[in-house]
Amino acid sequence: LLLFAQIDRQKTATETGSRKCRELFSAMEAIAPPLDNQARPNDQFLQPPVTPKVFALDIGGSLAKLAYERTYRYKRSVPQIEECLEFIRENILQADGADASQRGDMTGGGAYRFKDLITRTLGVELNKEDEMECLIRGCVFMLRNIPDELFYYDKHATPAHVFVSNCLVDTFPFLLVNIGSGVSILKVESPTSYSRVGGTSIGGGTFWGIGSMLSGGDFDQLLRLADQGDHRKVDMLVRDIYGGDYAALGLHADVIASSFGLAARSPEQPRCLADAIKSLLITVSNNIGQLACLYAKQHNLTRILFGGFFIRGHGLTMEVSSDSLSLVHTAHLGELKNYI
Amino acid sequence: LLLFAQIDRQKTATETGSRKCRELFSAMEAIAPPLDNQARPNDQFLQPPVTPKVFALDIGGSLAKLAYERTYRYKRSVPQIEECLEFIRENILQADGADASQRGDMTGGGAYRFKDLITRTLGVELNKEDEMECLIRGCVFMLRNIPDELFYYDKHATPAHVFVSNCLVDTFPFLLVNIGSGVSILKVESPTSYSRVGGTSIGGGTFWGIGSMLSGGDFDQLLRLADQGDHRKVDMLVRDIYGGDYAALGLHADVIASSFGLAARSPEQPRCLADAIKSLLITVSNNIGQLACLYAKQHNLTRILFGGFFIRGHGLTMEVSSDSLSLVHTAHLGELKNYI
Fold this sequence. Notes:
The structure is a homodimer of 340-residue chains. The first copy, chain A, is an alpha/beta fold and 340 residues long. Chain A has 2 domains: 16-129, ATPase, nucleotide binding domain (Nucleotidyltransferase, domain 5); 148-234 and 271-339, ATPase, nucleotide binding domain (Nucleotidyltransferase, domain 5). The first copy, chain A, is 39% helix and 18% strand. Chain A contains 13 helices and 13 strands. Chain A has helices spanning 18-29, 81-96, 100-103, 110-113, 115-122, 131-145, 204-215, 219-228, 238-242, 261-265, 273-298, 315-325, 334-339; strands at residues 55-59, 63-68, 72-77, 104-107, 127-128, 151-153, 161-163, 174-179, 183-190, 193-200, 236-237, 256-258, 304-307. Chain A has a 5-stranded mixed β-sheet with strand order 3-2-1-4-5, sandwiched between helices. Chain A has a 4-stranded mixed β-sheet with strand order 10-9-8-13, with helices on both faces. In chain A, strands 6-7 form a two-stranded antiparallel ribbon. Chain A is globular, with a radius of gyration of 21 Å. Chain A starts with 17 loop residues before the first helix and ends with a helix. Chains A and B meet through helix 4, helix 7, helix 9, strand 12 and helix 10 of A and helix 4, helix 7, helix 9, strand 12 and helix 10 of B. Chains A, B: GO terms for molecular function: ATP binding; pantothenate kinase activity. Chains A, B: It holds the Pfam family Fumble.
């Protein structure tokens, strides 16, 4: 069971990019009635903001994400932050004639790190919101307002995204796993009661970082490369050690015993880059899934929702995560809360 | 608190290799009285074997480890398994005039995978032992018989290995984390009661595999490279995102937010290999430490012992693991049980 606004019932996860983003925001424009509107008529999350915001900016570790004018999204890597701020100044503030301090909010660590640069470029200090609070508010907004947000990923189904509607009332409590450059894991008991219970530094930045050192590709090139690879040529499976199953422990021959273990065994052998990148994606995704399960058990939670830019509708990532979990969620939650 | 026979009170972890191995086996020859001999006078682990074994062989995913004649050890990578078997035939069996089936045992997945090759080369079928059972028996033997086996690693102390004696009686139950090519995590309640409760494919083979793809070095070259590197040039710290602490979550500026995250942020920037290898070692070690903590909590265990060839007395590996745990153990347990 889970949620993901970028995919509809009829489409597979292979379609991403700006068209899907426009669809997402079109869906937001025609906002569906909140699923549990009856139950919480005065909920703060459903009230329109006093002053509608023109733009919202989320500057994370690797990416700066901008949402503006309800329809458009803009993304730049963090080293291009100046270009991003110039874009806001020229295309949003000057066109709108707006006062940035009234019309824009920001979140993410970059809101603090680049505070002076932002103030200098936009000519005014922007309001800063805590990123965990934004994350939860964005997530709750999506859960309540976007139809077909909740699905699970079943690699044997066609399409693989199996949607489940009207599940919100039973959604709390859940574990929210936000996969950015690193991973934060939050226990969410209600829209206003949550805590960060754990995390891991092995996240999207690790896949991107090691992947780019191995291949030189950017994030989406790496994902495409992973689709073409065969991880069994790089990973050491149980069969590579035992010649078959390790029956005494119930470990099937195909279980990965050591990620990149074959690259270690015969390092001089030439490797296909796609195989290595696929192995890397599986390594990172499996580890996040395993940690999420352990934290969920520790906190007696049975629902795990995944979000963050690392997943972005990529089939393999979801397949590997759901091998552990049968639950996947992803959305761009941070800047969304600022926007609404 | 913990155990590690390859390091004595006066020496640092930098001394490894054959001299240390000889010291280990010399110590075994003059076996110390079992610490809890009084409590368990008829324990099977303290009885001498009916027929003393001449050699014991443990063929894992990456390495074949051989112990023979109480003093010598021999190690080859798995692709060199034929050379290893020839060594046994020429230097042990022919010199000793022994029947291999009576004088040698073997364990590890390779005992199954290379069964035919072993039988053909040695002219006889060797007895196979389950590797988890060997692991536990070797570990218990070390705990009971080797003085100064138990220590904790404190990077601020000189030497960093702080030994604690006579702790065995209170050692059970504990979590045993065996770091080979992959990682197995066992709950050990007594010498004869244990179960594999978890593991991870991110182990020594992952460090060796990714490391060799990045640098071309072998395992020990990689460890030396890691000693020279600065992971902060490759890892994204909280300060790289926030410009300082993320105070609201209590995350210090120096905490690693995303392993290899800076390599992702500016992939075109030339990287020092040593920095990347150090980051890789920290990534793998931290993750094992975190998983070990989570499994220990899940099973209500307060003691975690680390073993396996990945650690091999390397200071950084132990420092990083003990940042999470304050407990480190390592020894070559698999072939040891076969040997005794």
